[in-house]
Design the sequence.
């Protein structure tokens, strides 16, 4: 979310000898250097914009929603064909970041969407792929079982496979973007929170927790779970809500593990959509979580809708009861359910 004039930013004046505390004027302030903010700061600095980045923790921290080893990127977006041009632009941006950072930040794996033929994950992915002419395959339950033995498909289920998908490495990507931003001239302020943002159509202001005041031509607010606190109007009726999510790393039980390679995936169930990754640690564990639950889901173990104060952090996960653990995906072969898992809570 950006505050300030909508006109395109020009080159800001640079004053490389001054600290952020001494310098109270800049072109753009980026508040929050997670996945979104870090990349915004890098691109602003790369384009010659005088920019300041503010992060209350350290880049790549585990207090928000840009951590946890892996994030999915997919092109045949089941949520709607309108997202596809954005994903294509994201692929280009990731390639540029990898090139400039001289680091591998995205692992191409392909993606497999699973469910009944009329399930949202299947129909949405097919619709997006067809609308934009994306290469994809629709696989029968027998073909899924043959090509992807790590998935235990039910009779009549189908899979939609696309190659243009993979795993983003969030912590490494954030640190790389912040490093490149600083090398391009951005001033990076870590360990200091933005206490208040004063909107203004001409010169919005950011007050930091140490008393520093920064006046800018515009403010880019990429504060994630803290955005409703900094911009209370964003949390009004129908606005942003900060919620707890629980995911887990499940121990694999076969050697060699079928999860050592393969696509990222999502699977529609009766009351939720699961997602998961190929093993990122050589086949020892598999990361699985919940993408979305049916509204009002009251099944034991449901996690949808639990509010979180980001300053306090999410409630730590507890080992589920047998009824609760049964809700974790039954559709993967070769992994151990609770208690042989490492659950973790985050916010989004």
Sequence:
């Amino acid at each position: 979310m950006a505050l300030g004039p909508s006109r395109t930013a020009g080159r800001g004046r640079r004053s490389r000898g001054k600290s952020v505390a001494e310098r109270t004027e800049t072109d753009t302030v980026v508040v929050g250097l997670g996945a979104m903010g870090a990349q915004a700061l890098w691109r602003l600095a790369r384009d010659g914009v005088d920019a300041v980045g503010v992060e209350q923790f350290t880049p790549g921290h585990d207090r928000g929603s840009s951590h946890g080893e892996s994030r999915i990127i997919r092109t045949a977006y089941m949520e709607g064909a309108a997202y596809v041009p954005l994903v294509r632009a994201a692929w280009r941006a990731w390639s540029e970041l990898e090139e400039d950072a001289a680091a591998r930040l995205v692992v191409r794996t392909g993606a497999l969407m699973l469910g009944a033929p009329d399930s949202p994950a299947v129909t949405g992915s097919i619709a997006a792929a067809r609308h934009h002419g994306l290469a994809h395959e629709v696989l029968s339950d027998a073909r899924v079982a043959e090509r992807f033995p790590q998935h235990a498909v039910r009779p009549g289920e189908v899979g939609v496979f696309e190659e243009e998908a993979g795993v983003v490495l969030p912590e490494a990507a954030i640190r790389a973007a912040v490093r490149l931003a600083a090398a391009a001239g951005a001033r990076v302020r870590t360990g200091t929170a933005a206490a208040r943002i004063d909107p203004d159509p001409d010169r919005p202001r950011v007050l930091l927790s140490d008393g520093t005041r920064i006046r800018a031509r515009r403010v880019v607010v990429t504060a994630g779970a803290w955005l409703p606190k900094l911009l209370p109007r964003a949390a009004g009726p129908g606005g942003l809500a900060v919620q707890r999510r629980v995911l887990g790393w499940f121990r694999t039980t076969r050697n060699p593990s079928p999860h050592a390679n393969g696509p990222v995936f999502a699977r529609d169930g009766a009351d939720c959509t699961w997602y998961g990754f190929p093993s990122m640690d050589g086949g020892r564990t598999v990361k699985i979580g919940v993408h979305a639950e049916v509204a009002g889901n009251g099944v034991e173990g449901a996690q949808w809708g639990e509010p979180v104060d980001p300053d306090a952090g999410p409630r730590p996960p507890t080992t589920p009861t047998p009824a609760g653990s049964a809700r974790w995906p039954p559709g993967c072969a070769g992994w151990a359910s609770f208690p042989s898992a490492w659950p973790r809570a985050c916010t989004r």
Summary: Residues 5-22, 321-326 have pLDDT under 50 and may be disordered. The chain has two domains: 21-67+170-233, 110-167+241-347. The two ends are 16 Å apart (CA to CA). The domain at 21-67+170-233 is CATH 3.50.50.60 (FAD/NAD(P)-binding domain).
